[in-house]
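I am sending you the entry underneath: sequence plus fold tokens. Let me know what the token row says about the fold:
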Amino acid sequence: MVKFFISALALLFILNSNAIAQESDKDSVEGYQFTPVIEIPATSIKDQHRSGTCWSFSSLSFIESELIRMGKPALDLSEMFVVSHCYERKADKYVRMHGSTNFGAGGAFHDATWVIKNYGMVPESVYDGLTIGEDKPVHGEMDNALKGFVDGVIKNKNRKLSPVWFDTYKDILANYLGDIPETFEYEGVEYTPQSFARDYMEFNPDDYIEIGSYTHHPFYEPFVIEIPDNWLWDVIYNVPLEEMIEVIDNALANGYTIAWGADVSDKGFATKKKGVAVIPDVDITEMNDAEISKWESMDEKEQKEKLYALDGPGQEKTITQEMRQIDFDNYTSTDDHGMHIIGTAKDQNGTIYYKVKNSWGEYNDYEGYFYLSKPYVALRTIDIMVHKDALPKKIAKKLNLE
């Protein structure tokens, strides 16, 4: 059994005591070694680059896998089609609310299904949103310009809004992302965005739900999740922690992927250097006197730096419902990033991890993927999106989704 061991020099995950006695053994393994267990088809890694649109990239990656599961050809859908329509509706709501709602680049998974339901969809080849001479999304100026414009509309001294403000806003947005086509040709057939979603994709947005786990709302009831990027004020379903994990495991076991919204500010989110996201545990009972003295002499910053010098699998914290809630209430777990869970793998000790597709390009040793421990999911998940059929029957019944 691998144990978490804190040395006098650094706090490391290392091999257990039997393996220490055999340091010269050529068969000893260092680092994380992953073996695939469940692999569900997904489209290629994309790069959101310098844009706050992870929610669009991850939700469309999820939908692309859903289309493959449904027997459709692999599609590369337009993230900026979703972003553009959402930015239009955000502006309308923001102005109507006198600037008292969130306005910015962020969003949620249900934004994509809302866009498909109301506006349809187009392939990336039809609308890539790259009109300013960049080969990847670069949205800093656009985000600031749009925010400045709607703030100016709200604060104007005319005592009323002009009838042209929204058209002017749309012109600014189109200058950055391009005009959305009313019709287009794909594989020799002419479509509108609505007919493409309906007739080619045959995708039903109403088949998808979001799930979270919180104690400040009743279990088995929907509620409006209180995160700034939920500008649509949409609902998620609330279940106990163990059932949220059960939904994820049941989905993957039956060929369904999961859109995963989570906090990535935790130091255990070491995907760039290590390709993992974990919640390490420190057990002071494992230390000898010298190690305890060394540990206690460190300040909190040093302790954290030593704690997350991960060399390989080790002991992780046991996550409770109360821990989840405390971190959400205290802003320790915030809605940082949207990703896509596409399977599972086991490490060299047989521990199961979730395989996650990110939208930062092929940036690490796993070419843009990383591996996520169950404790990390239990503690840092904000919400997930799944197909309703991916729910275990007993949970679907509790949610009145049979």
Summary: Residues 30 and 312 are 6 Å apart (CA to CA). The two ends are 42 Å apart (CA to CA). The chain has one domain: 4-20+30-398.
